[in-house]
TrEMBL record:
Domain NusB/RsmB/TIM44, chain residue ranges per copy: 22-146
Keywords: RNA-binding, Transcription, Transcription antitermination, Transcription regulation
Record-stated family: Belongs to the NusB family.
Transcription regulation recorded as keyword: yes
Record function comment: Involved in transcription antitermination. Required for transcription of ribosomal RNA (rRNA) genes. Binds specifically to the boxA antiterminator sequence of the ribosomal RNA (rrn) operons.
Protein name per the record: Transcription antitermination protein NusB
A cellular component annotation (GO) from this entry: cytosol
GO biological process: DNA-templated transcription termination; transcription antitermination
Source organism superkingdom: Bacteria
Pfam families in the cross-refs: NusB
Name of the encoding gene: nusB
Amino acid sequence: MAEDKKTNKPAGKRAAPKSARRRAREAALQGLYQWLLAGEDAGAIDAHMREQDGFNKADQAHYEALLHGCVIEAADLDAVLSAHVDRKTTELSPIEHAVLMIGAYELKHCIDIPYKVAINEAVELAKSFGGTDGHKYVNGVLDRAAADLRPAEVKAAKR
């Protein structure tokens, strides 16, 4: 089978285009990363993210909810996560921490997104931006957090 020389994938197969929500999550992740590292004002980070190429293709309402919601609720989200992580959230890599915050926020507030989708999207963010096996850690933590944040949905899925 012929391969595409740029991607080493079978020729003719291209990655599916990113959804507007995926783009929103990626932008929010980058903003949260900056916030976690530098402690910059969320408004300044927001303004910077909006200037990035391709931002107009993101679901802007979802981006705003994620970035500002995670910053405002950081302590509450960390409290949820702390029950399921093996160390203090401040000791996590900033990427994993930000991904977990986004996942926990979506599990807590975005009921229109099935919990498995919220977890999978966080795992995909960790694969794209995080360390080698960070996505496995994210998956485990959010899977356990989902049982706390969406018990009825998790229970129904396990039947």
